[in-house]
Amino acid sequence: ETGVTQTPRHLVMGMTNKKSLKCEQHLGHNAMYWYKQSAKKPLELMFVYNFKEQTENNSVPSRFSPECPNSSHLFLHLHTLQPEDSALYLCASSTQPRGSPLHFGNGTRLTVT
Amino acid sequence: KQEVTQIPAALSVPEGENLVLNCSFTDSAIYNLQWFRQDPGKGLTSLLLIQSSQREQTSGRLNASLDKSSGRSTLYIAASQPGDSATYLCAVPEYGNKLVFGAGTILRVKS
């Protein structure tokens, strides 16, 4: 148990589908993150939220839409994805944006067919 | 732009051996460096976080060092065990909240 829970663990979706990834942290952290991990590439930061406010959008295509209703929950809404979006999507949280360690969930393995 | 390189990309050692994983970064103006472990199909587990004012951090059989001026960090694993087999990643902040990760070192410890 990492304190950061992601659901679902695996997701297969077609290019015309709409789905959402969910992340919940039980650590009392104020910052939450979405990272993408593709095969043979380093982790890439997608979005950052501090106290529910988005503070970073790392040039992510609009087919990915984040939502942070409160400091414990983070969603990633997906629509009209491409096969190259297939990857492991990792959620993380920290006590504050700078200087504190990140705690990661186990990720959602997404396959776009 | 911050870039992080990890060497070697993969490493296979017999059980009991001491080993060193290397991480280098291009911009030395960092305020910390973090080492993570990732098991197959899983998320990342934070191993050690070294603040810029520190030279090293230790946790059990793990010791991480940081030399900001040369843009390098090493992760030393003593008396390696098969359970240490995983991918090890280092990461440094670029600006604000953005962490830049290396591609990782895949470690296999053979029993």
Task: From the structure above, extract its key features.
heterodimer; A: mainly beta; 0% helix; B: 111 residues; mainly beta; 6-stranded mixed beta sheet; 5-stranded antiparallel beta sheet; 11 strands
Computed CA radius of gyration of chain A, to the nearest angstrom: 13 Å
Tell me what portion of residues of chain A adopts beta-strand conformation. Answer: over 45%
Stretches of chain A where pLDDT is under 50 for at least 5 consecutive residues are none
Number of strands of chain B: 11
As an assembly, this protein is heterodimer
Give the overall form of chain B: globular
The largest sheet of chain B, given as strand count, sense and whether it forms a barrel, is: 6 strands, mixed
Number of helices of chain B: 0
**Structural class computed from helices and strand pairing of chain A:** mainly beta
The ordered H/E elements of chain A are: EEEEEEEEEEE
Helix/strand-derived category of chain B reads mainly beta
Molecular shape of chain A: globular
* Overall average residue pLDDT of chain A: 91
Strand content of chain B: over 45%
The helix content of chain A, as a percent range, equals under 10%
What is the tally of beta strands of chain A?
Answer: 11
What do these coordinates show?
The complex is a heterodimer of chains A (113) and B (111). Chain A is mainly β. Chain A has no helices and 11 strands. In chain A, strands 2, 4, 5, 6, 9, 10 and 11 form a 7-stranded mixed β-sheet that branches. In chain A, a hairpin with a 6-residue loop joins strand 4 (31-37) and strand 5. Chain B is mainly beta. Chain B has no helices and 11 strands. The A-B interface holds A 2, 4, 6, 31, 33, 40-43, 45, 48, 50, 55-56, 58, 90, 92, 97-107, 109 and B 4, 31-32, 34, 36, 41-46, 49, 51, 89, 91, 93, 96-104.
